[in-house]
Amino acid sequence: MILREAGPDDTIGLLRLGRELLSETDHFVRRPEERAADLSDMRRIVDYYAVTPGWTMINVWDGTEAVAEGVLSVGGLARTAHVGTLGIGILRRHWGRGLGRRMMADLERRAAEYGVERLEFTVLAHNRRARDFLPATRLF
To answer: What pTM does this model have?
Structure first.
């Protein structure tokens, strides 16, 4: 499995990943209708992450299939320029393989390079799996 930044040629795989992620659990802040609706939406999102300082989208690929996603966004306001927000999603059939830890380590490294002093990882209250994951990670 390969972890890398999202690129413009990944839009079909990322659109599929997003749809599957949001259909298999209710663990995400974003609802299905709030995610990319089509390829052009997905392309705009990928492009935005690529050109926005402090923003990163990484994915884990199993061959040609995107199976996990991690995002980092660093505060866009002067008063929050030191704060980063993280999000991670992994397809259920790939849970328990260490992908979350691998993505978290990569995103933490990137956050440190951007000068982030505090990371926020949004987890819904009913997502016990993610809540149990957090104490095992090192968020600054």
So the answer is: 0.84
